[in-house]
Amino acid sequence: MRITRNQSSASEFILLGLPIKPEDQGIFSALFLVMYLTTVLGNLLIILLIRLDSHLHTPMYFFLSHLAFTDISFSSVTAPKMLMNMLTHSQSISYAECISQVYFFLMFGAIDNFLLTSMAYDRYVAICHPLYYTRIMNQSVCILLVITSWFLSFAGALVHTILLARLSFFRGNTLHHFFCDLSALIKLSSSDTSINELLILIVGSLGITVPFICTVVSYGRIGATILRTLSIKGICKALSTCGSHLSVVSLYYGAIIGLYFVPSSNNTNDKDVIVAVLYTLVAPMLNPFIYSLRNKEMKGVLRNIIMRKMYSK
Fold it and tell me: Is the pLDDT assigned to residue 34 strictly greater than 90?
């Protein structure tokens, strides 16, 4: 992605990073490195298990494999640069790197959002319309949902980035964050940002609120269907079917609400930075644990593969 700009504007930005004391930088950098490696390896394991076992070649796991890939990419947008800055005690990021980081952060974050909504719809069809599940959630529909998720995310992030690249930054180049956050950059700009703010409102409503409402409606219908069964066995089966996904949805939207919808103090951005860590590092790291520990099929496939490896020696 080529970035063109006014050469008199900022050539780099200073990332103040996390609110951590200098003497604690080493400990936290080691912790975040472990978290990032866990995210990458855990989600790679999910992708590998789904590809190796034919029993997991279902719509739900098809979406899950794409979600795992997206989580790896999403964390990789911010974590490596943050770790490098912490280890080298550097706080700078070039203009081109910063704009690129904004683009990929928005794109992969949006894909996560759409994939979680697709998975909620899949669970709705599986529980509320089980007889028509294979007809509704066929391969073509699943592929179409994934392609649509990528296209909408790509388009939305591209528009945001193009408008951001037109802004000038004469007033300063210091960001109170550990990565180039779109909202922080807009606040820092010396240009008229009304169009950028309007686009954030529109895209935020369409790209976050609408999928969130669809997810809530899907689980509302699932809850109503479960309650009508009046069967303990049926309730337990439904909970085991969608419990993992519901946990991930709660974690994901909880972080988004805390980051973008709960107002911060005017004097500090520490809350935004800390919640952003939960959103960008903790949530993608926990997803493999949630889907592995709460999912009998995933645990069964992993156990079978380990046993085969042990007996093949």
Answer: yes
Task: Please tell me the distance from the alpha carbon of residue 128 to that of residue 18, in angstroms, as a whole number.
Answer: 45
**94-123: per-residue pLDDT in tens?**
999 999 999 999 999 999 989 989 998 998
Of 22-36, 130-144, 267-281, the least confident: 267-281
List pLDDT tens digits, range 256-292: 766 665 555 444 467 778 878 888 888 888 888 777 6
Report the predicted TM-score, pTM, of the whole model to 2 decimal places.
0.86
Residues 6+ apart with CB under 8 A from 281: 32, 35, 36, 39, 75, 78, 79
User: End-to-end alpha-carbon separation of the chain, Å?
Assistant: 49
E strands along the chain, which residues?
12-15, 92-94, 174-175
